[in-house]
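Hi R.,

Here's the chain you asked about this morning:
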Amino acid sequence: MRIDKNVVAFEWDDGNSDKPKKHSLTLEETEESFLDENKIIFADWEHSTTESRITLLGKTKKGRLLNITYTVRKNKVRIITARPINRKEVPLYEKTA
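And the predicted structure, written out as tokens:
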């Protein structure tokens, strides 16, 4: 799966702009992981009760591996959560790299 070609921007507001900061991430660094050519994207069926949620495992320019859950609203990516990936998730990313 890849990011929808109709997505034109990221949506950051008071409701989600602090979420990456909780894990020492910047908004820019979070967005960088979407540009990773080796990123993995998959549906997050477990948490998609009211809207479609997607999980991305991707690397930033600094080499940090991130786990980002997001949704697409009106052609914009809205980050739900962003954090460094854990030890169990590293092999998932490395299989594609």
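The mean pLDDT is 87.

Let me know if you need anything else.
M.
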